[in-house]
Amino acid sequence: MDAGYKFHFKNALWTALVLVLSACKKDGPEPDYPAGSNQYINDWILDSMQVYYYWNSSLPRNPDLNKDPLPFFATLKNPQDRFSRIYHNAVPESYLPSPVQHFGLELILYSAGGGAPQATVALVVPGSRAAAAGLQRGQRITHIDGTAPTAGNIQNLIGAAVAQRSITLDVAEAGKITIPAGTVSENPVYLYKTFNDSPTPVAYLFYNSFDGRYRHDLVQAFDAFRQAGAKELIIDLRYNAGGDVGVCAALAAALCPVDDTDIFIEYRGNQRAGIRRETFAKTIAKTYSGTPFPFAGIRSMRLPLSRVFILTGRHTASAAEFLIQSLRPWTAVIQIGETTLGKDMASFSIRDNNANKNNAWHLEPLVFKLYNAHSEGDYPSGLAPDIQRNELGGTLLPLGHPDDPLIREALERINGITAKARTALPDREPHIFYDSREAADRNTSFIVSP
C-alpha cells in the first residue's frame, strides 16, 4: 500500500494541459545514467519539476545530481513550498508513520494550562480495530508498549508500533488494550445528529474526508436533518484533511443556492499552465471516488439555511479548506475553531513510466493555486476563524458533545447568547509536544490527475 493518503482532483480538462507541458521537455538526447542510480532518479525529478512545478522559474540551474533523492529534492523546493513531496514505500524516512492508517486512532501529547504533558486519544475511526477494542476519544494513555510516552520518545514509539503491526496502550480509564494493525476503512460520516434545545433544530455533521464511496451516508444525514426540520447547520471539519473535489463541490452545492452552471473553482498554474475555471456540474461529474452526485439529488438535500457554521482546526486542509472558500461567494459562513492548515494548492502525482529504470519514487509537486468563483484564494497561512476556540483548552469530549468548546460556541451563537452573557470558556493555550495527525498533514496529497 502506498505510504500516506492520496486525495485527488480528477480532471479530464488537464489532458490538453499535459500535452502542452509535455512538449516543453528539454531538448537533446536524454542522458544515459545507470538505471536506479541517484543521477537517473534526480534527473527524472528535475525534468518533471521543470515542466510541472508551480515555481519552476525558481529552480536551481545546476543542482548536484549525485545526492540522494530526498536531499536533492529539498534543494529544488521554493521557500514558499510546504507540501510538495517525494516518497518511496521502501524508504521510511520519506514519510511519517501514521497510527490512524494502521490502527484507526490518533494520539496527541500536550499540556493545558501549564500542567504536565499528557498523551490522549484525539480521534478513533468508527468501525476500526481501535474502536472495536473500546478505545474512546479523550482517554489518557500512560504507556505505549510498556514505555511512558514523552516528547522525546513518542514518535519513535509510534513508529515501532507501526513497524511491528501491533500496539499495546495502557489507558488510564480502561486498563491495557492491545490493537493489531489492519486495514482501516473510514466512513467519513462519523456522526450526525440534531440538537433540539435551541429555538429551531440544529443539525450537526462530523465529516472527516470527501469520499464519494459513502455518498449514501451523506445523503442519509441530510434526509434526517430535513425530517427534523433543521434550519441551522454545524459541519465539523476539524480533522478533515481533504478528499475528492467532486464530493467537495457536491456538498458545497447542497449548502448554498447555486446552479450547476455556476463557477465552483479556478486553477492557476505556472506561466505555461495558465488559468482554468470550472463549474459545479463539471467538477461534480468528475467525481472519482464512487458515483457522482446527480445535481437534482443535490437540490433535494438542501436545507432552508441562511448561513453555515463550520468548525475547523489546525488539521483542516485541502478540499476541506476549499469547501469554506467555495461557499463564501454564495452564502454566509461562520468559521469557529483554529486557523486551518493552509494547503491552498494542488499537485500532480508523477511516476517514472520506464519500468526498466528501477525507479519506484513517487513525485508530487505543487502545480496549481486554488481560487473560488470570485477569484479569491491565496491562503498559505490558513483560513483564520471568525471565532477563535481551541478544543485542547480542557478534556477532549466525545464528538458531537454540546459542551465541546467549538460546538458550544456555535450553539450559543445560534441561540443568541451574547458574549457578555456566555459562561466563560477555559480555552487555555495548550502546548503540543506531539500530534500523530501531523502525519496526515504531511502524507496527504491534494492531487489533480491528467
TrEMBL record:
This is Peptidase S41-like protein. Residues 41-84 form the Peptidase S41 N-terminal domain. InterPro entries: ClpP/crotonase-like_dom_sf, PDZ_6, PDZ_sf, Pept_S41_N, Tail-specific_protease. PROSITE patterns: PROKAR_LIPOPROTEIN. Residues 121-171 form the PDZ domain. GO terms for cellular component: outer membrane-bounded periplasmic space. GO terms for molecular function: endopeptidase activity; serine-type peptidase activity. PANTHER family: CARBOXY-TERMINAL PROCESSING PROTEASE CTPA, TAIL-SPECIFIC PROTEASE. GO terms for biological process: proteolysis; signal transduction. Pfam families: PDZ_6, Pept_S41_N, Peptidase_S41. It comes from Sphingobacterium allocomposti. Residues 202-387 form the Tail specific protease domain.
